Amino acid sequence: MNFSSQQSDCVESYIEGRPDFARPMLTKLCVIVRRNAPHLEEAIRWQAPSWKGNEIVCAIAAFKKHVSITFWRGAELPDPKRQLIHGYGRSAMRTAKFTAPDQLDEKVIRAWVVAAVNLDNAGPAPKPRREKKPEPVVPPGLAAALGKNAKARTAFAALSPSHRREYCEWIAQAKQEATVQRRVEKALGMLSAGGALYGKNKK
What we know:
Radius of gyration: 28 Å
Distance between the termini: 66 Å
Strand content: 5-15%
Number of helices: 7
Oligomer: single chain
Order of helices and strands: HHEEEEEEHHHHH
Shape: elongated
Strand order of the largest sheet: 1-2-3-4-6-5
Largest sheet: 6 strands, antiparallel
């Protein structure tokens, strides 16, 4: 096992210091993790027992009325009974909470631990692909004005999609024709000067 006697003693001390209702559940969770992931580094992190491989895999903790086991990549774990709920501060983290020993299904928890270890061994979670936003729809008034002003048209085409979108949305949000024309004229001036549209210039 990849945890020293000193680390193990720290975890045992943590468990011994918890309320009576929590100790049996913490002990069982600890045993399940140790049996099914003996290679993980066991230590007290964030004032609670946790296990680490390439990254943090899981942790257990006691609270006033429940104990929990948290998986850092819990969103990727099998959860047919929907026992894993969102963790704190991380969209991928999931936590299962228990208030009595008979709620701990060893088979389910073992499956979580094994799956979490496999994910850790496989490497970092893939980053979600960001959907590419479509090109902004150029308002008719701006399109007509750009058609007559080559310098502004070239500058507009050279802008990033987000800056082009900002111009288009700013003009499209105008509710009166006079406001549309005023914003189009201001846009042409800023584009001719080679500038993007910033919030302080919006009027």
